Amino acid sequence: MEKLIVTGGKPLKGTIRISGAKNSAVALIPTALMADSTVVLDNMPVLRDITTYKSILEDLGARVNFSEDQMVIDPSSLQSIEMIDDNVKQLRASYYLMGALLGKFGEAVIGLPGGCDFEPRPIDQHIKGFEALGAEVRNEHGSIHIKAKQLVGNKIYLDVVSHGATINIMLAAARAKGTTIIENAAKEPEIIDVATLLNAMGAKIKGAGTGTIRIEGVEELKGCRHSIIPDRIQAGTYMIAAAATKGDVLVDNIIPKHMEALTAKLEEMGVEIHELDEGIRVIGKPSYNSIDVKALVYPGFATDLQSPMTTLLTQANGVSVLTDYVFNSRFKHIPELIRMGAKIKLEDRSAVIEQSDLQSAKVKATDLRAGASLVIAGLTVKTGRTEITGVEYIDRGYDNLVDNLKQLGADVWRES
Ligand code: EPZ
């Protein structure tokens, strides 16, 4: 079993370059399958979820070459509409194969997706969308079977603003006959990224990034080259780590506009922020104000930064309240932070966080962002050695984490 060892107490200092966005990449890879020729994806992050997706594509019969930060996907030899093996269970984003294969072949059989299981994560809105486009959907023996004689555009109102459902419906609708309108669509930058790739492949999508997306179905999608947007959640994690360790870090190669909700909250705490064209410099201060944070759908404060932010708020004077309105119970990091001395109470979907002196301890990452919150806690601890197990979760979303943190002056290493 691998663990991360952190000996904290050192302010992070220097520059960190952020890689491509995981949550874009895991949608763009299945999107590429819908082309009739090669798609080149640049700025691809090197992560466990990405290598898992590569294996899934190869099992489906596609040819994939992944080197450095470029993935070349040739879908012309794709043979199967069925993917039910263990890889799909490891990866939440395998659900995008439903929309991609349904759009391409009118049919898909996909094992129920796995991934970070911080709470039950339904896919009813994805299915509602496929059915509205004319597909029949059955759940048989742990797999979803989806089939349509002809996908036909429709007006679809999402009952909950869902990032995944918006993308999945957009994929299927790109090849439907006629026009699809998705109302109450999610607005995340990753959704715009997928629409940008689809449009470069020949799709006709307007309004991505707003609450109403309009898709005119087309008969074919061709290969192209696309560069993935920077990972705003990785960027936010390093910004929070810089503030928590009272450091001075330039988080580079990002789109500062994507970070606005976090930047506003850090400034409210008293963190010094300098926004540049493609970077944000975060300068920590000796003490911080307590604040309230509400995790909401984009452009609100990202739920994926809720757990790292919990750790930072243990360093603020007084009492802060952090409420997650996206996921009811994404709080598995809290018992582990309490093990490290954090004074946190859970009240319904809110964490009430008091200023705390964190201590080193043996803790366990139970999902990706919970893992990030524990790494930041370890960096904040003044003495002793924090041991974090569950490293496999952290590897799903943070590439080169250990080297990046070392480059910023942290004492972090892996042990088996
Ligand atoms: C995406 O998950 C991200 N995953 C998550 O990132 C992120 O936390 C989440 O969006 C919210 O931003 C990927 O992009 C692969 P949702 P997704 O559908 O699409 C409810 C990370 O750490 N809902 O927007 O699965 C759902 O229960 C991960 O990188 C339904 O009720 O999330 C939740 O309360 C974890 N029915 C809310 O909507 C549905 O059919 C938002 O979920 C779908 C969702």
From TrEMBL:
GO MF term list: UDP-N-acetylglucosamine 1-carboxyvinyltransferase activity
Gene source species: Chengkuizengella axinellae
2-(S-cysteinyl)pyruvic acid O-phosphothioketal PTM positions: 116
NCBIfam families: murA (TIGR01072), PRK09369.1 (NF006873), PRK12830.1 (NF009470)
Function as written in the Swiss-Prot or TrEMBL entry: Cell wall formation. Adds enolpyruvyl to UDP-N-acetylglucosamine.
Protein name: UDP-N-acetylglucosamine 1-carboxyvinyltransferase
One Pfam family this sequence matches: EPSP_synthase
Active site residues per record: 116 (proton donor)
Record family assignment: Belongs to the EPSP synthase family. MurA subfamily.
Compartments where found: Cytoplasm
